[in-house]
Design a protein that fits this description.
234 residues, mainly alpha, single chain, 11 helices
Length: 234
Amino acid sequence: MNLGRTIDTTRRPRPGSRTIRPGATRERMARILRTLADSTSTSQVELAHRTPFELLVATILSAQSTDAIVNRVTPTLFRHYREPADLARAPVARLERLIKPTGFYRAKARNLIACSHALVARFHGIVPRTMDELVSLPGVGRKTANVVLGNAFAAPAVVVDTHVRRVANRLGLTTSLDPDRIEQDLQGLIPRRQWTRGSQTLLLHGRYVCTARAPRCDRCRIYRDCPWEGKARR
């Protein structure tokens, strides 16, 4: 593995795949992100971690769970399994008990062990730094890969989770529900150097303000920039 290779988190757009709304411009996107940044104390990932491997494991566990639950599980998990080689040898039943609170623990345990095996066998126990290599690991999709690239390796990376998908659609930044297309749309609206911080800002806005149920429109700093028909009146 060549750790010095250029990190590329983009993908070649497919013909007709862009689904940006006509009113979604870079200027409007920049205004939204500036306003949200002024109202948010941090734009850092909320999964507790000390190493790229810990972030990779925590992100896999966060699927269909919350960061708060994952953060309660991982301290004990990482005391027992600090490196990929440790987790690759983990007894399945014991690992399942440790991660059970995160949900879907049987599938997650299988993925974590398989992923750790692949890290040891193919990458000498080191988390790779490219999108193609990361998504080749069991249990790792583009969202997980982008979390790791953006937060562990400081590479420009647009994370699209359920919060970003919801916020991007409500703000009229995309017309798609497909994460890959939303990622492409946001890449076109956010300057590359701001991809990680910008998408994380949208994620946190969706987590704490623009929630799926009962969004807190009374607290929304970008209310005037939101064309969503379902927003509460002020």
